[in-house]
Design brief:
Largest sheet: none
Number of strands: 0
Structural class: mainly alpha
Low-confidence stretches: 3-25
Order of helices and strands: HHHHHHHHHHHH
């Protein structure tokens, strides 16, 4: 075996290993950075910044009161289980005023407290996908949601949108994530409808028709499946 072949094999193995460990590193190291300076982190999380400018005084006052209440509970013991839901609320409130960095901090802290829960990762996925446009982070957050709660449909649906339109578009993952979602949620017709749309877009009418029939077996009155079935059989 010559040096070029050896180098190529080593490179491929390295890529496989890095890809396989990316999910692990996200959970173990990205979340662990929240521990670098707990006092500084607590101060930042409990500070409110109105970045969004078009907020009425009445709404600002209401948001501020809700934030102060959640921050007070959080600061009583920042790393306890009792701070989990206040951190979720703090993240929601910060996102409302476009403080995306602050929202991320709060939800990462919540995820550190309850790593087996799904709400902080679902919120992070939504933040990364719809607001920050960091599709790699969104992917890892949503994959964690699926790991923690396979019944959470939003994670599959958003990952499908990411894979189909924004990220890893030629990987086949758009189809795979929908099939995984349906496997874990056999009666979820919304994911089946997405799959029909996907197969229609790649001109695989046979599979699209098959999934129309599967939906109608579950929901005979499903208008989407009936309409698509007529279109596909023309």
């Amino acid at each position: 075996m010559n040096k070029t072949v050896k180098f190529s094999i080593s490179l491929i193995l390295a890529i496989i290993i890095v890809g396989g460990l990316s999910f692990y590193f996200y959970n173990e190291f990205y979340l662990a950075k929240q521990q670098t300076d707990p006092q500084k982190l607590a101060k930042e999380i409990s500070t409110f910044k109105y970045i969004k400018s078009d907020i009425t005084p009445e709404v600002k006052d209401k948001i501020g009161q809700s934030f102060n209440k959640a921050a007070q509970i959080y600061l009583a013991d920042p790393t306890s289980v009792g701070s989990y839901w206040p951190l979720i609320d703090i993240g929601n409130l910060k996102q409302q005023v476009s403080d995306y960095t602050g929202a991320e901090q709060a939800w990462l802290a919540a995820a550190k407290i309850q790593p087996q829960a799904y709400p902080p990762f679902l919120n992070l996925g939504n933040l990364y996908f719809h607001f920050i446009k960091d599709f790699a982070k969104a992917e890892q957050a949503y994959l964690t949601v699926i790991k923690n709660k396979p019944e959470e449909i939003t994670a599959y649906s958003d990952l499908y949108q990411i894979y189909r339109y924004f990220y890893k578009q030629d990987s086949g993952l758009a189809e795979k994530i929908l099939l995984q979602g349906i496997e874990n949620n056999p009666k979820e017709v919304g994911l089946m409808e997405d799959l029909i749309g996907y197969y229609k877009s790649i001109n695989d009418n046979a599979k699209a028709i098959d999934w129309c029939n599967k939906i109608l077996a579950i929901d005979p009155q499903n208008d989407y499946a009936k309409k698509k079935l007529v279109e596909l059989q023309k």
